Amino acid sequence: MSGRRVRALFRRVVQEIRRDRPSLGLLFIAPILVTGLVTFILREGETPPVHAVIFNQAGPPGVVVAGALRTTLEADGGSATIVPDVDTARAAVSDGSATVAITLPAGLGGGGAVITVLTDGLDPSGEGSQVAAVGRLLAAAAASVTGISPPTIDHTTLYGTPSSDPITTFAPAIVGFFAYFFVYILTGVSFLRERTGGTLERLMATPVTRGEVVIGYILGFGLFATMQVALLMTWALASVHVPAIGPIPDFWIGLGIPIAGSAVFAFLVVVLTALGAVSLGIFLSTFARTELQIIQFIPIVLVPQFLLSGVLFPVDSLPPVVQRLAKIMPLTYTVEGLRQVFIAGADLASAALRFDLLVLAAFAVFFATIAAFTIRRDVA
Amino acid sequence: MTLATPPSTSGASRAEPAVRAVGLLKTFGPIRAVDDVTFDLLPGRIYGILGPNGSGKTTLIRLLVGLTAATAGHAEVLGVAMPSRPTLGRIGYMTQSDGIYPALTAGENARFFAAAYGVHGPQAVSDALRVVDLADRVDSIAGTLSGGQRRRLSLACALVHRPPVLFLDEPTVGVDPLLRVEFWAHFRALVDNGATIVVSSHVMDEADRCDELLFVRSGKLIARGSGTDIRREAGTDDLEQAFLRLGGDQPAIR
Question: What CATH code is assigned to A46-157?
Answer without folding.
Answer: 3.40.1710.10
